[in-house]
């Protein structure tokens, strides 16, 4: 066993990670039921889809500034406050009486998600160094997707009973709170500067352009990708699979594949290279979207979403890793915030982009358009990154 997994701090950080990136999608199986519950609202179709992506708007706005909060207050206090906000805002959908009020609570949930993400990411940098830090990031991304797998599958079962019931899953933040409080101490002040003693390689020429490409690519990827949690339950309904459990199984298949690929991607990235890794991910995403568009059985839909999860598992670590590798050390916090903001902005914008496509092309047509979009992104990303000089060797950190 990797000795890093014997460190309780690693498990505390991974538990915190399970609450973050895929937290928006936890209530995906509830969307058709919630839309039916608020059917008298003429905006119900759009507002129910925004319930998935509303937290992303707050994360996109706050992420570039959240690092300053953790520098001022320390890492531990914002993390613990974020867990409380997450639990209170996340469970509010159990009792709020209007779709607008639930949407407002989802925006507050984004505040908790942003605080948790930034604080736990900073703690990884403070607690671990070198290869250990890189391995933990892989485990963390896998934990995020495993958490999503468990939460969304459970949400499917709960939504079959009552579409409000999946909001109770957010109370897990309170369950995790005592363990996280106990195993994640505030780092010593010197811990945040331990890398200063390690000579840093010079930043890559034109690093700003590479960071911009990675940020834009990350944002556009999530605009298309988030059609899965926001539109797939309705697509399954149209295929004669209205059961919320089936939406949970299909989403779970995606998250399971993403969890595996998130770990594997660290091993295959050196072989595929800076361009080959995200392009392979985009082509895998395109195959997955094509399968979802053309499939008419639960098995085919699960295979399609598994391909989507695997493709995202290749792309997502590459966006962040490439941006950080080319950036001077003094700007890494800002760059990390920029990529994070782009990812969550893409999530928020997704239903605003994909819903008109659904209305014009139908669900199958919209997923087919998403497949074509990923092929176009693969071509554009290849051409843009080929403009840059071959990357210099970088120290793994």
TrEMBL record:
<feature type="transmembrane region" description="Helical">
    <location>
        <begin position="248"/>
        <end position="268"/>
    </location>
</feature>
<dbReference type="InterPro" id="IPR036259">
    <property type="entry name" value="MFS_trans_sf"/>
</dbReference>
<feature type="transmembrane region" description="Helical">
    <location>
        <begin position="136"/>
        <end position="155"/>
    </location>
</feature>
<protein>
    <submittedName>
        <fullName>MFS transporter</fullName>
    </submittedName>
</protein>
<dbReference type="Pfam" id="PF07690">
    <property type="entry name" value="MFS_1"/>
</dbReference>
<dbReference type="InterPro" id="IPR020846">
    <property type="entry name" value="MFS_dom"/>
</dbReference>
<keyword id="KW-0472">Membrane</keyword>
<feature type="transmembrane region" description="Helical">
    <location>
        <begin position="361"/>
        <end position="385"/>
    </location>
</feature>
<feature type="transmembrane region" description="Helical">
    <location>
        <begin position="79"/>
        <end position="96"/>
    </location>
</feature>
<feature type="transmembrane region" description="Helical">
    <location>
        <begin position="205"/>
        <end position="228"/>
    </location>
</feature>
<feature type="transmembrane region" description="Helical">
    <location>
        <begin position="306"/>
        <end position="326"/>
    </location>
</feature>
<dbReference type="InterPro" id="IPR050189">
    <property type="entry name" value="MFS_Efflux_Transporters"/>
</dbReference>
<keyword id="KW-1003">Cell membrane</keyword>
<feature type="transmembrane region" description="Helical">
    <location>
        <begin position="333"/>
        <end position="349"/>
    </location>
</feature>
<dbReference type="InterPro" id="IPR011701">
    <property type="entry name" value="MFS"/>
</dbReference>
<keyword id="KW-1133">Transmembrane helix</keyword>
<feature type="transmembrane region" description="Helical">
    <location>
        <begin position="49"/>
        <end position="67"/>
    </location>
</feature>
<dbReference type="GO" id="GO:0022857">
    <property type="term" value="F:transmembrane transporter activity"/>
</dbReference>
<dbReference type="GO" id="GO:0005886">
    <property type="term" value="C:plasma membrane"/>
</dbReference>
<feature type="transmembrane region" description="Helical">
    <location>
        <begin position="102"/>
        <end position="124"/>
    </location>
</feature>
<feature type="transmembrane region" description="Helical">
    <location>
        <begin position="275"/>
        <end position="294"/>
    </location>
</feature>
<feature type="domain" description="Major facilitator superfamily (MFS) profile">
    <location>
        <begin position="1"/>
        <end position="390"/>
    </location>
</feature>
<feature type="transmembrane region" description="Helical">
    <location>
        <begin position="167"/>
        <end position="184"/>
    </location>
</feature>
<keyword id="KW-0812">Transmembrane</keyword>
